[in-house]
Sequence to fold (533 residues):
Amino acid sequence: MAADQELKIVFTGPMGAGKTTAIRAISDLPPVSTEVINSDKETHAKSTTTVALDYGQLVLDGGTTVNLYGTPGQERFSFMWEILCRGALGVVLLIDASSETAMADFRTFIEYFRRIRYDQPFVIGVGRHLSQDGYHLEEYAKELSTHEIVAPLFEVDVRHREDVLLLVQTLLCVLEAQVVEASHAS
Amino acid sequence: MSSQPVFIVNRTGPRVALVDPAPNAGKHIATAMQLFDSMLWAFQGLTQLPWTKSAPLNADVIVVPQGFPEEQLMSWNADRKLVVEIVTVPTEPIPDLGQYVLTYPFKARQALELLLRLETRLTTPTDVAVVGRGQPQGNSPDHQRGKWEFVEILRTLNPSLSQKDWFVGQRNGESLFWLSGDGLTYLTAPSTAQAIRSGTIDLSDVVLVPAHGSKPNPILRARASIELRWFAGYYASEQLAPWLLSAMQYNLTRWPDFGAIRPAPSQIRIAAVLSIEPISLSQLVERSKSSLPEATRTLNALATCGALAVVESQSVAKRSPRKTSATPRKGFTRFFLEIRKHLGLGV
Fold:
């Protein structure tokens, strides 16, 4: 068992999905963000955006450190996604359902991240959008089903810490179930 | 919401026989029988099991026109066949025959709901071993089935039906909630939602009444009906639902929206274990470190949400070991304890 393996959880998703907010909600330290003025206002109206990564940290009682990384949202930085996800305990994908490109973004990210490692614990949070018009998470569920992916898919609001914790708790439960299964198999 | 709560892999579907009406039975009854026949064909893929037509002798279900001789119906009933009578004049089913009645003109939805009810009945074991063993007298199979009536109604709702057709959920004449026809959204008062979530309201005798064009009060908040399904299934019984068997292996085919449900940590753990590999109830208790009642209730809730599939053990391919992520220096057991404590997550 290696003594210096990095433990990390990766938050990914398109620009404006709430990765920085989610990391801020649970990190022990104020997250370090490499944000710059957003020059791509056509894609998203936010004033700044992450160009390299966000970084937060959990320091557990026994001294173990878990790093929290937020990937840059733009697809042109996808080479970073793979680097960050390598060896991660799991990946949290966040989608802003109010974005016009939400479904296309969703498709891009699930295809990309399943390719990186199909059995990596993977949890999806879709920004809350239940309205009087009905419940639309079903469309995302159908898309997952089309890709034959069985992954947790929840409606969340990452501005609320308990919603981010629900995603992390689920990620840990999936990882734990995998570890237990591996111990039974061996 | 998925329209396929539980399916049985490799199971042969129900066989149905349609008995032609007598030549002098009248035009309406002949049309009604033809309509049902064509709907049977049109519903292929919408039902949970594949229906095939057969002769009455080999059929599980026999569909007869109104006025069919009662002695013959009783004989089929003695052979454990289910009988559906298609009528053009409303009539009462013959008592003790377990008979189903469909009144012409009927809507496609009514016919589909009938087929789904028949499927549930046909896949429900008659001996219900799990329920019967060591239960108090009031927990007979029939009593158990009564607890599941509302859940079975929910299972027949289909997202392909119209979102704009509303049903009112009523209990003892009191309106509790509005449910959209596609079964995805429901509207209710916050206090009722809280009662549903805490199990303080008994949903077993709730009936869904078509709203006939009426619209819900706009002050009611729309909620994801997965919440209603989950808690209806979770609180229905501490025994397995009639269509689940303790000896079978189940796995998760989709995750219900836990953002709407807000399950307990133990329930997330149970879902996670089911998502990894097909597993029986006793294995689930062991691997998820849950109590038997909690595992049973969660399995019931997942099934009510259409999130489970039955997998025959011989069809389960051995998975390759998972690729490793980084491993905590002090081992995973300690790591899970420490990170949950740190984040204030329940164990």
Remarks:
- Chain B touches chain A through 55 residues (CB under 8 Å).
- Chain B has three domains: 15-127, 141-236, 248-342.
- Residues 166 and 212 of chain B are 8 Å apart (CA to CA).
- Residues 15-127 of chain B form a domain with the Rossmann fold fold (CATH 3.40.50.2300).
